[in-house]
Input
Amino acid sequence: MSRWMFVLVTVLATSVYAYGQSRKEIYELQERCGKRAVELFEKDFPPADRKGLENFENHYSVRLNKCFMLEDNTLFSSDNGKNYQSRFMALVDVNDNKTVGSFNSLSCDVGEKKCRSEQEFKALIRPYMED
Output
């Protein structure tokens, strides 16, 4: 078998059983991640207190073997007749209930990295929210 054929077979085998987990195990972890994210979101934003401007998405990262949730909340306020809108996003490690990164009008960071815009924030969280 040629070296390239060996590499191709190895890549295909590892992609089918990503990081030692079967498709069934990955599916079960994704399901658990989704349920746990809903629980945490409802704790952070109780249904009775919501204004319809809060939402989230979750992702089970096979590579990191972790469940992440991106909370997104838009707030409206007024001061001296002026209306203001602000957005707050937080990337949360669901199982540890720990904020990995956050974005708002005053600060932006993911881990130890600082960012200056929502676009930079989204680029920094991509490795957590996509596989």
User: Anything to note?
Assistant: Residues 27-129 form one domain.
